[in-house]
Amino acid sequence: EVAPVLGLFRLATPMVKLQITVAVIFSLAFGIAMPLQFLYLRDAMKALFVPNDDGTVPPLMTAHTRRDAMVRQVFERYLVLAAVLMVTKSVGFLGIEFAAKRQALALRRQLFARLLAKGPAWFAQQNAAELADQFATDVQVFENGIGEHFTNLLRVCTMAITCLVLSFMNEPRIGLILGLGLPVTGYCISSARDTKLHAAHVQQRAYAKAGGVAGR
After folding, report:
1. For this protein, what is any one GO molecular function term (predicted)?
2. What is the mean pLDDT of residues 83-107?
3. Among residues 107, 136, 181, 207, which is most buried (max CB within 10 A)?
């Protein structure tokens, strides 16, 4: 059964919700800032081929103060962008990871409480090894889904939209090609991811059953 997106965060406390909000904002900021490096790369290439002060072109060794000033300006912008990317990626990743671990801990406590409420007859009908493995797997999948995978999805979607906007602003034809190719790329990535997750789930269940048989 597929749970709603907001339902995945029902175990979050107000403090955890604040962490998630901050992490989402910084992840979106990272997705917007990341494609800007391509603009700075274009400016850097232009700055490297600026003619010398007397009109000659590199590699002739003459005065080139104007080119030096442009290269220095692009380099300083790159440093600022690198700092922004480092801060936004770190805060977004750490914030959502801490929030996911706290929610996973709350989920484990709820599951343990419900398991302890079961009677001896219920446990006699279950396989302890398979049950423990399934318990650990489900909690880990939950933690990954609301943690790193969630912020990765935000960053990728934001970067795709930003790249599309920048492409249309600089070269509409390339932007159109990119816009037509994004749905196909997204579908292929989604299909490959679903296949991988299904295979991992089947393999995990097989390991759990094998562990249960070996424990008998």
Report:
1. ATP binding
2. 90
3. 107
Q: Considering the entire predicted model, what is its pTM?
A: 0.73
CATH number at residue 130: 1.20.1560.10
pLDDT top residue among 95 and 46:
95
Q: Which of 134, 151, 170 is the last residue of a domain?
A: 170
Report the SS3 class of residue 3: coil
- Does the N-terminal peptide bond of residue 59 adopt cis geometry, omega within 30 degrees of 0? yes
Residue 77 pLDDT more than 60? yes
Range of the domain at 67: 5-170
Asked whether residue 51 falls in the same domain as residue 129, the answer is yes
Query: In sequence order, which residues have a C-beta less than 8 Å from that of residue 92 and are 6 or more positions away?
Result: 23, 24, 26, 27, 29, 30, 151, 155
Pair 40, 139 in one domain: yes
Q: What is the pLDDT of residue 83?
A: 93
Same domain, 187 and 81: no
- The radius of gyration computed from the CA coordinates of the chain, to the nearest angstrom, equals 26
> pLDDT class for 25, splitting at 50, 70, 90?
very high
Local structure of 24: helix, strand or coil: helix
Which DSSP string corresponds to 125-136? TS-HHHHHHHHH
> 154: closest CA among 18, 5, 29?
29
